[in-house]
Amino acid sequence: MSWLDSVRKAIGGVAHSAAVGAEVIKLQAALANLEEERERQYAEAGKRARELHRAHLVLDEELGVILKRVNEIEAQMEELRGEVQRLRASTTSSGTGSVPSEESGSGKQEKT
To answer: Is the pTM of this model over 0.70?
Structure first.
């Protein structure tokens, strides 16, 4: 085998490795997209289960425990939102500058 053949073989190996690496990245991205979609579907299923539990159409003790924790978390979130509002009000009234606004989780919260 000549030196040029060795170089061609090496370049071919590198190109193959790069192609395989690109395909792996593509497949990993597709897998991540599917995992995100699955999580969205779980969230939707959880919301539906909560609706059914509230309507007493699903009576499951474990689900009740999970939803009780959701309610506790929402209560904590409301407390924190109240604290943010108090802090904003205190900085506004004292004229000390602006406080960043809430960027996420500011939507209406569902109560159980």
So the answer is: no
**Numbers of helices and strands, H then E, in the chain:** 2, 0
Q: In the chain, where are the structural domains located?
A: 1-59, 60-102
Q: One digit per residue, pLDDT tens: the chain, 112 residues?
A: 688 888 888 888 888 888 888 899 999 999 999 999 999 999 999 999 999 999 999 889 999 999 999 999 999 999 999 999 999 998 877 665 555 665 545 444 454 5
**The Cα angle at residue 81 between residues 65 and 71, in degrees rounded to 5:** 10
Considering only CA atoms, give the Rg of the chain. Answer: 27
Four-residue CA torsion sign, 26, 28, 34, 37: negative
Check: CB of residue 91 under 8 Å from CB of residue 98.
Answer: yes
Taking the mean position of all CA atoms in its chain, how far away is CA 36?
8
**Among all chains, which residue has been given the structure tokens 């159980």?**
112
C-alpha count within 13 angstroms, C-beta hemisphere, residue 28: 6
The C-alpha atoms of residue 69 and residue 64 are separated, in whole angstroms, by 9
